[in-house]
């Protein structure tokens, strides 16, 4: 079996959720939400705020390595910030060429650069040159902006620029997160480059994992929203278990309680309920019990109210 990586998910997979998901085991490494690089050299506090794991050897509490993702379009500034970040000894540095968010794209970040393979190569080369050889430099890309015309060119450009591994999300920017997913294009990219390619996109269960490996020829897979919907998915893939089981919910309940405790330490009382609702809302896809729990706290607006409702549902809440 190949490697399993937890995806960078903006506005979702922060240090709190990373800690909880990786605690279940099964991941080889995870990637942070992106740090946006524009025209300034960012202080170390910017990186450690996004990834407190940098103060723990760049590992989650459970020991999973954490790579830091950078997003931008200026090769020199990305290189300068990557060199500054390298002083904190991250487990790796990843470059974002996949974010489809309109605001980011309007400012020439993320997937908006996929019509300029030569710029991708310059960015990759600048960052790779600026970072010590022992720190991996990787990249994540989509298949293009509106079509796949430049997909192979972008992958080859990133390889030429020196990235050591390439994650390919099998959609264009215009596709967003809508089906269908284009796994066949990951296979074409894998055949065109020599560096390791990691397949990403629409893996919700063990059967999807097997299908994406078969369709792409990739041994390594990055899990995104599927890992949030089923917090035990990576471990389930490694064990070969096909479906969620009733016994799984007991473990997931403990993960929810741990998540809620961590969220309350990070966010003010009026903001923390939204994070829990977000996760439970996604988890409904895998666990009907999550739907019941979501319904119980749906109208709660304050952390104390949520905690009381969770306790009434049998969750042990740390105060």
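Sequence proposed for the structure above (319 residues):
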């Amino acid at each position: 079996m190949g490697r399993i990586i937890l995806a960078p998910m903006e506005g979702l997979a922060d240090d709190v959720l990373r800690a909880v998901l990786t605690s279940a085991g099964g991941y080889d490494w995870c990637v942070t939400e992106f740090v946006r690089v524009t025209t300034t050299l960012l202080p170390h506090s910017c990186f450690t705020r996004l990834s407190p794991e940098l103060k723990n050897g760049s590992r989650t509490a459970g020991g999973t390595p954490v790579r830091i993702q950078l997003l931008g379009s200026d090769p020199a500034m990305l290189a300068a910030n990557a060199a500054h970040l390298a002083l904190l000894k991250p487990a790796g540095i990843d470059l974002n060429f996949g974010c489809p968010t309109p605001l980011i794209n309007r400012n020439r970040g993320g997937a908006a650069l996929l019509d300029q393979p030569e710029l991708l190569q310059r960015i990759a080369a600048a960052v790779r040159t600026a970072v010590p050889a022992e720190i991996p430099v990787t990249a994540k890309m989509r298949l293009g902006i509106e079509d796949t015309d430049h997909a192979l060119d972008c992958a080859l450009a990133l390889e030429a620029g020196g990235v050591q591994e390439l994650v390919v999300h099998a959609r264009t920017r215009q596709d967003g997160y809508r089906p269908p997913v284009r796994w066949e294009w990951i296979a074409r990219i894998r055949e065109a480059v020599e560096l390791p390619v990691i397949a990403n996109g629409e893996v919700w269960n063990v059967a999807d994992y097997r299908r994406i490996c078969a369709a792409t020829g990739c041994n390594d897979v990055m899990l995104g929203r599927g890992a949030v919907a089923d917090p035990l998915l990576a471990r389930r893939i490694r064990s070969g278990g096909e479906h969620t089981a009733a016994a799984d919910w007991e473990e997931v309940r403990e993960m929810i309680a741990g998540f809620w405790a961590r969220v309350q330490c990070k966010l003010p009382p009026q903001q923390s309920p939204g994070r829990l609702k977000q996760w439970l809302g996604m988890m409904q896809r895998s666990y009907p019990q999550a739907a019941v729990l979501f319904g119980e706290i749906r109208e709660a607006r304050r952390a104390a109210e949520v905690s009381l409702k969770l306790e009434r549902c049998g969750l042990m809440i740390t105060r």
